[in-house]
Amino acid sequence: MQQTRTGVACLLVAAVCLGAALVGAGATKVQAQEDQGSGASREYAIKAAYLYQFSRYVQWPAEAIGGGETPFVIGVVGSDPFGEVLDEIARTKKVEGRPIVVRRLASAADYGPCHIVFVPSSATAAEREAAIRKAHGAPVLLVGEDSGFAQRGGTVNFLVEDNKVRFEINVDAAKQQRLKISSKLLSLAKIVGGP
To answer: Is 170 helix (H, G, I), strand (E, B) or coil?
Structure first.
């Protein structure tokens, strides 16, 4: 049991470290963007790294993934808090050999064929609820950052506790969306029930 917890802790540390590495020049670049007021904060650099990591620990149904070089699509609803961080990940990383495409979506209604959809806290309550309704039964990992998002039907919700980015997973929503989430990822999350 102790060995398992140690392994899980190492995985979490690796994900956070990867967050710093994925932003190109690391925290220095993020800090420079923060100072200029034009880019993502360190918090959003870490959240972007988690979005990429989620793609490695979640299995989508075969029909949702497509064949060959079909891109892996990450959508961001409304105002994008990530700056260029997600674009940097898309330029430098792949998901199972597939290129990553980042789409900025005017509303949840536009998300079409996305594998991950991120709904920022700047989205209105109506936009958050529309995203949850649209994702219901669809093979999309719906990620938010608003209190109660996962309990209302989102798949993953980011939390900031003790200045650390953590997340909760709604396993019922994941089942409805036909997503298989790795036990390693589940062991790092707070598990919540569905709506």
So the answer is: strand
HSE-CB for 172 with a 13 A CA cutoff: 9
Rg (the chain; Cα; Å): 16
CATH 3.90.1720 fits 2-192, yes or no: no
List pLDDT tens digits, range 20-66.
Answer: 343 333 333 333 334 344 345 899 999 999 999 999 999 999 888 87
The 10 Å CB-count burial string (b at 16+, else e) for 52-61 is bbbbebbebe
CB atoms within 10 A of CB 78: 19
- The kind and range of the H/E element at 105 are strand 98-105
Domain locations in the chain as residue ranges: 2-192
Kindly compute the dihedral angle of the four CA atoms of residues 106, 112, 117, 121, in this order, to the nearest 10 degrees.
30
- The answer to whether 171 touches 177, Cβ cutoff 8 Å, is no
